[in-house]
Design brief:
Number of strands of chain A: 2
Order of helices and strands of chain A: HHEEHHHHHHH
Largest interface: A-B, 76 and 76 residues
Strand content of chain A: under 5%
Number of helices of chain A: 9
Radius of gyration of chain A: 21 Å
Helix content of chain A: over 70%
Oligomer: homodimer
DNA sequence: CAAGATTGGACAGCAGAACTATCCAACCGT
DNA sequence: ACGGTTGGATAGTTCTGCTGTCCAATCTTG
């Protein structure tokens, strides 16, 4: 365990805590006071830290997602499970208007979702919140996002397809889903600043 | 204040707490035990809740962002300030390789950033974390994201340009930056599921 | 084989975040 | 005059995510 702590950079008590919380599987017991941890444990530990630090997930969500990895049969399964586990189901339901706006967007793109999909509700609720501030999101922006994300998804999936064993493939799918989100957001912010600057410059020139 | 609580749906003690924390400005004092709250207060309160609930910001970050709104002279300022205040500057620095990958992407797109930009570091660190899991992000994916986000940013900015007074314009810029993030992520997840399904179907047909 | 370090397991403690509850004196409308 | 707010202060609560301490069983090393 000292080695695990060393290699992961985490203090021993924290690793014990993660074991208790079921975030990492117990080591192979070798006698009553000793267990053996392997490469897989280290990998898991790093994944936990990445999900917490980079994807900003809470520990209970991390556990839930990892359970999903362990039980999923296919990539597709794993991603579906991860999505399901990510969105909080509490709080007020989404408005009919927003749900309709989402469904119409899905239609325009020929996409489908389970009617109880967590993503459908989450999106509708986000739209509600913004509309509640007097700044509604129209179909044009929704379509722009959908177009943009369709393009990105194609490139994303190209790299996942070279899958190895089942567990690695599933893990990669989850990494791709969750850990690329902060990457995308950072790129978005950078793009926003630059497009905004270009536009301001153009306006100034025209004036 | 009872009215403010009523209209915002928040309990009175919570509003008192937000006042204490400086998240909303104090009401116009009318005598020693009474103050008047107006439409602006209600608006602020709703904005705070949206930033907490939808954008998942912590209260200290919300305060920081709101301070930015109040002090910003222009839209551009406000967005810059918001970005700066969003990313945690603690933790390990980004690796040189990742920083270089970011800079090269910026080059390919003709974009520029202050070298100490919070976004630049945040992006590089996210790339480091993913690479640490043995699943590095190549320039192709980075470019795909940048392309996608450039397209989206153009549409986003179209709607902000019809600015009213300074305060509203700045507020809208911050809403656009922060509250549209969950919208984008939800669309991304939906797109991912659908593109993945399409691809699986095509593969199955080819087989 | 004795001495000292390490491990797993149980449990208590702690710091930060976001509320929530209680008091109290000043005050307002009736 | 008086019951019901209000602002202000202060203390308490719940939830997370760790840390710290203790202990007996065991492993290692001399």
């Amino acid at each position: 365990m000292a080695e695990l702590s060393e290699r992961s950079g985490l203090p021993v008590p924290t690793i014990k805590y993660y074991l208790r919380e079921g975030l990492i599987p117990p080591g192979d017991a070798v006698g009553a006071t000793r267990a053996r941890y392997g490469e897989a444990h280290l990998r898991r530990l790093r994944l936990v830290r990445a999900l917490v630090d980079v994807a900003q997930l809470r520990l209970d969500v991390v556990r839930s997602v990892l359970d999903g990895i362990d039980n999923a049969r296919t990539r597709h399964d794993a991603v579906g499970a991860a999505h399901m586990r990510l969105s909080r189901t509490d709080g007020e339901p989404a408005s009919h208007e927003s749900l309709r706006a989402v469904d119409e967007m899905l239609n325009r793109f020929g996409w489908t979702l389970a009617p109880d999909s967590a993503n459908r509700t989450a999106l509708a609720r986000a739209l509600d919140a913004i509309a509640g501030l007097g700044f509604p999101v129209g179909p044009d922006l929704l379509d722009a996002y959908a177009n943009a994300m369709r393009g990105a998804a194609v490139v994303e999936l190209n790299r996942v397809d070279l899958a190895e064993d089942r567990e690695t493939a599933v893990e990669h799918a989850v990494i791709g889903t969750l850990l690329l989100e902060p990457v995308l957001l950072a790129v978005r912010r950078i793009a926003e600043v630059n497009v905004s600057r270009e536009r301001t410059a153009r306006e100034r020139a025209a004036r």
